[in-house]
User: Fold this.
Amino acid sequence: MALGSDIEIARAAKKLPIQAIGAKLGIPEADLLPYGHDKAKVGQGFIAGLKDRPDGKLILVTAINPTPAGEGKTTTTVGLGDGLNRIGKRAVVCIREASLGPNFGMKGGAAGGGMAQVVPMEEMNLHFTGDFHAITSAHNLLAAMIDNHIYWGNALDIDARRIVWRRVMDMNDRALRDVVTSLGGVSNGFPRQTGFDITVASEVMAILCLARDLADLERRLGDIVVAYTRAKTPVTARDIKADGAMTVLLKDAMQPNLVQTLENNPAFVHGGPFANIAHGCNSVIATTTALKLGDYVVTEAGFGADLGAEKFFDIKCRKAGLRPAAAVIVATVRAMKMNGGVAKADLGAENVAAVRAGCPNLGRHIGNVRKFGVPVVVAINHFTTDTPAEVQAVKDYVAGLGAEAVLCKHWAEGSAGIEDLARKVVELAESGVADFAPLYPDAMGLFDKIETVAREIYHAEGVVADASVRDQLKAWEEAGHGPLPVCIAKTQYSFTTDPSVRGAPVGHSIPLREVRLSAGAGFVVAICGEIMTMPGLPRVPSAEVIRLNADGDVEGLF
Assistant:
C-alpha cells in the first residue's frame, strides 16, 4: 500500500506524552520543561548529575555527496535508532534542528522521511522551541552593542573599517549579503559596509553547539572577536560587555530538546549549524547527555562525509573528547547512477554499468572515514525502482573494499526494514576495532591543516590562496590561535569547489577565498570557492506551496 507524504505520515503518528519518552531514559518529570504535549527541554541540573555515568556507543551516520537523486541520511539516522531499539538496544537519536531558510527554499526539512521520522515534524521544521530565534537575537544584540559603543564615544578605539561581526537572520535572502548600515544622519550612527549571514552560519550557533554548560557558553561568547582597534588589537564580546546578556538570551536554548520517533523512541534535536558553511553537527550537550542515558547514540553530520564527517571528527570529537565506535555511510542506487552520468529523468531505468561507474564516489568516502580509525558499514537506502542487479553491484563494489553494504527499507517499513543494519552496527561497535584519531594534530600550522584536509579528504593537489590570506593565518598563529582546528566552507555537491563535478575527481585545486576567526567557537573558518554564508532562494522556492488548509493544518512542508 502506498504511503502518504511525510507530513501526512507524521500527522497520523500515535505519539506518547513527552513525559513517557523521558521516562524511557530515566528522566524525571520534574527535570523536563514541556513545550506542549510532545516536546520538552531537559534541565541543566539533571544533565550535570549524569557526569559520573559510563558512556554508551557513539555511531555516526554520514553519506556520499548529495545529489538531486536523494540519499536519505537523516531518514537512515532515525531508522537506525528505531532499528537498534527493535533488536533490544536502548538507543537514542541525536540530530540537528531545521533552519527556516532551506525549509522555505529548496532543501526541505530535517526530520527524516517515510516511516523513519522524528515528530512533531511540523513544529521541528518551523519555530520548534525557539532556539534559533534566541541565537539570532543574541547574535544581533552583540552587533547592536558594537555600533552603540562606537556611537557613544568609542572608548575602545574600534576601527569601524575592521568590524568583523556581521548580522544574521534565519532565512535565505541574497539581498542582505552586502549592505550599508546607519544611513540617514548623525542620530543613526556612522555609516559602514557590512552584511548578513544565515543564522546557522553564526558563531553563536557554533558556540551553543560546542559548549558543555552555561559557564562554558558564557566564556566562549566572551571570547568572540568582533573587531580590531586602530592599533590592530582584537576587540572581544567581553570587551563590549555583551557576553552576560547574550548568555541570558541563550539560557533556555542551551537545554537539549527531547522529542520522539514515529515508533516512540527518544530523540534529541538540538542545534543546527550548516555543514557546508559551518561545522554541521548537533550540540555537544545533547550528544554527551544521550551517551549517559543510552546504550547507543545515533547521530548524523551534515551533507557528505567530506564535509560533515570530517568536521564531526576534527572539530566536534576533538573538542568534546568523543570517540565514535562506528560509522554508517548512506548511499542510494539512484545517486550511484547519477554519479555515473545518468540524468535525473532517466534514473528509473536499470543501468548496472552506471551504478558501477558512480561507485568510486562512495569508495572515496569509505576510504576517507577509515583514515580516522573508525570502522564503516554502507547503508543502501532502498528505492522501489532499484533492481536486484543494481543493488548487488553496490554490494560487490563495497565488498571489494573490505566493507559491507546492507540494503535498508526503513523508509517504507520502519525499524523492521533496517534490522540487518542495526545488527551490523552492533557487531562493529562491539568489536573494539575503532581507534579514532583526528586527521591532523593541534600543533600543525593553520594553512597546513587546510591543505591536509584538501589533500587527504578532497584528494586535491593543493590549496590556492592569496598572500593576504596566508598572512592573516600567520597573524592568528602569532596571536595564539594556531592550535585551533579548521572548518572549511565549501560546496557540498562535489569533492571540488565546482558543484557540477561529481564522482571521485583528482588533480583539482581548492581556491581559498577568505578566512574568518571563530575564537569563541574554537576554530578557523576557511571559505573556499563560491560558497555563500547567506544562501539565496531558488527560482521556485518551496514557500510558494506551503500554506494552511481549510482545517488549519500545514501543507507543503517536506
Summary: The radius of gyration is 23 Å. Residues 371 and 439 are 7 Å apart (CA to CA).
